[in-house]
Design goal:
Elements: H1 5-27, H2 36-49, H3 61-67, H4 82-85, H5 91-101, H6 106-136, H7 138-149, H8 152-158, H9 164-183, H10 187-201, H11 210-225, H12 231-261, H13 267-277, H14 284-293, H15 300-318, E1 322-324, E2 327-329, H16 336-344, H17 347-367, H18 372-378, H19 380-398, H20 412-429, H21 433-455, H22 471-474, H23 490-499, E3 505-508, H24 515-519, E4 523-524, E5 535-540, H25 541-546, E6 550-551, E7 572-574, E8 578-583
Parallel strand pairs: 2-6, 3-4, 3-5
Antiparallel strand pairs: 1-2, 5-8, 7-8
Helix pairs in contact: 1-6, 1-7, 2-3, 2-5, 3-6, 6-7, 6-9, 7-20, 9-10, 9-11, 10-12, 11-12, 11-19, 12-15, 13-15, 14-15, 17-20, 17-21
């Protein structure tokens, strides 16, 4: 059954409205998460001070958008605090000072910054819908948007002031406009491709992976679409236009945005900060170039972008301390993201994926080997999405930064579209009415299961795990950090303390919130590594698992300091992520 454009857009509006409500209503009880402690104050400092000294390892655009409402709150800015005047990128100290120590209303500030992010999430949903509709039709677009709108991962991270949803938007936008440019390489499409490529580069540095992606699909398109005798000419034409688009993005987007952001950043301060930040960089030659550029007029704005890229590369190569299935490591595991993807995504979607995969593999087997060029030509958009998935997943799996499913979230929209293509394609190929009804009913049941799985964890979307992963109450046994516990439950701990008339409580908290801001004089000093304790104790799941896990051979820091808590059962939890004990013996 074909769906009209009118009804398709109405359904899309309803789906995104539901997602907006779920996102807004579920975020109101969440406290500040880890990365928000740096991103929100950084964005406000960029717009209010025109100074990019805080958090240069992420591009500014998402932080800017989150800070726009804050400009109307008349915030107190700690411009005389050492974290701003003396330290080098002291983002956590500065963030805590601005949000919790300067007399600002922390809850109001955080809420308004997050509302901006929910709007970005809505734009992403609409762009995904238009992408799928433009290339694959109404049915595929609605199915992909349904999957997106009830995705626990997108709802979880689309409400937070972080760069992951912005990066995902950048992927969809750039791909959409680049495909339009390849299909019709006129002046308008070259300019749009360049502008949106530049915008994407301002969303997250990991989107540098769009460069090899664009390179591959541009070469492939020029070769399969041109006559045999004109392949070289076509290749040179597309290569030249692609280079022009890249220059447009650099000159008309990246450079002016960074130029604005360093307007009041003193050149000597930028130079000294750059030297300090890159002192431990393994890429000495590139670091030296970056340091040389840091105080030079005109180019120091591009240099600051370059610095951010180096910082991200440096962090990825060094890795992070990670808990994964009772192990603690800094070097990571190649199977981390595949397993986390399997456990964090609703099972119903995995079933839909298997059905779609069978259909797609059947189509490839049936057509590909007879005429690969013709198959790629007629399925170039699908090919492009698969190329991006291959590049992004390969880099993620081989990297050392194993700290959350959010790092692979830019691949999700294309997975949703490919699965929707398979489901709709299979439905259209079934000719017998009885079989078609049976298949339609099966898909409907799977979608209802998917929706129920998402709604059932409300409002604890950060902690969502599917049934195999133990649900939102048991997923911490596999992985933590932004997969489960990112500091979102401190306000719920405050409520627990007040409801139970607890006078003193020891807290080992993982997150971005200032514990004292909410608990005040109820907070008791606590050294987690000093052995067994008595009294009320609250421990974040990330720190609890980190203190109980077994170290891998390459991990030489202290572990096992929370194993004594294995002898006690928690008397409660704040939300899902903070375990509360009352130890009297």
């Amino acid at each position: 059954m074909k769906i009209s454009n009118y009804h398709t857009k109405i359904a899309a509006f309803i789906l995104l409205s539901i997602m907006f409500l779920m996102s807004f209503l579920s975020i109101r009880g969440d406290s500040l998460t880890m990365d928000e402690l740096s991103h929100i104050p950084a964005g406000y400092s960029y717009l209010s001070q025109k100074d990019f000294r805080i958090n240069p390892e992420h591009p500014p655009l998402i932080k800017d958008i989150s800070a726009i409402p804050l400009l109307f709150l008349n915030l107190n800015f700690p411009d005389n605090h050492p974290s701003w005047t003396e330290e080098v990128n002291s983002q956590w100290w500065f963030g805590n000072e601005l949000i919790f120590k300067s007399g600002n209303d922390a809850d109001k500030l955080i809420l308004w910054a997050r509302i901006s992010m929910i709007l970005i999430l809505m734009i992403l949903g609409w762009f995904l819908f238009m992408f799928a509709k433009r290339f694959f039709g109404n049915e595929v677009a609605l199915l992909a948007l349904t999957i997106f709108s009830f995705s626990p991962t997108f709802i979880a991270h689309g409400r937070l002031v972080t760069t992951d949803i912005g990066a995902t938007l950048g992927v969809v936008m750039t791909t959409y406009f680049w495909l339009n440019f390849l299909k019709k390489p006129n002046k308008k499409n070259v300019i749009l491709a360049g502008l949106f490529f530049g915008i994407s580069m301002l969303l997250k540095f990991s989107l540098a992976l769009l460069v090899p992606f664009i390179f591959i699909i541009t070469i492939t398109y020029s070769l399969i679409k041109s006559p045999p005798k004109k392949k070289i000419k076509s290749l040179l034409k597309y290569a030249g236009l692609a280079l022009l688009a890249g220059i447009i993005g650099l000159v008309f987007v990246i450079w002016p945005v960074y130029q604005f952001h360093i307007s009041n950043y003193p050149p000597q301060k930028q130079l000294s900060d750059t030297i300090d930040i890159l002192s431990s960089s393994p890429m000495k030659s590139l670091s030296n170039v970056c340091i040389w550029m840091a105080d030079k007029p005109v180019i120091r704005s591009i240099d600051h972008y370059f610095l951010g890229l180096l910082m991200v590369t440096q962090r990825t190569s060094f890795g992070n301390t990670v808990y994964f299935m009772n192990l603690i490591s800094k070097s990571g595991w190649w199977y981390y993201f595949p397993l986390v993807y399997f456990l964090k995504i609703p099972l119903a979607f995995h079933v839909l994926s298997l059905i779609a995969l069978l259909f797609l593999l059947f189509g490839i087997k049936k057509n590909l080997w007879f005429n690969m060029k013709e198959y790629l030509s007629s399925h170039f958009v699908e090919f492009s999405m698969l190329v991006f998935l291959a590049i992004y997943w390969f880099v993620s799996v081989t990297g050392n930064l194993n700290i959350g499913v959010r790092h692979i979230i830019p691949t999700f929209p294309f997975i949703y579209v490919l699965v929707s293509i398979g489901i709709v394609g299979l439905m259209n190929q079934i000719k017998k009415p009885l079989f078609k009804k049976a298949f339609s009913f099966t898909v409907l049941i799977l979608l209802l299961w998917y929706v129920f799985s998402s709604l059932s964890c409300f409002p604890h979307y950060i902690s969502y795990f599917n049934e195999i992963g133990g649900g939102y109450k048991g997923g911490y046994k596999y992985v933590v950090d932004s997969n489960y516990d990112w500091g979102q439950d401190l306000k719920r701990l405050k409520s627990f303390v007040e409801e139970n008339n607890i006078e003193k409580i020891k807290v080992d908290y993982f997150g971005g919130t200032d514990v004292g801001y909410y608990l005040g004089d109820r907070l008791e000093n606590f050294d987690p590594k000093s052995g067994p304790q008595k009294g009320w104790i609250a421990v974040s799941a990330t720190l609890l698992q980190g203190g109980r896990g077994e170290p891998t051979p390459d991990f030489d820091e202290e572990t096992g300091y929370y194993k004594w808590l294995d002898d006690y059962e928690p008397v409660g939890r704040a939300g899902t992520s903070i375990f509360i004990y009352n130890i009297t013996d």
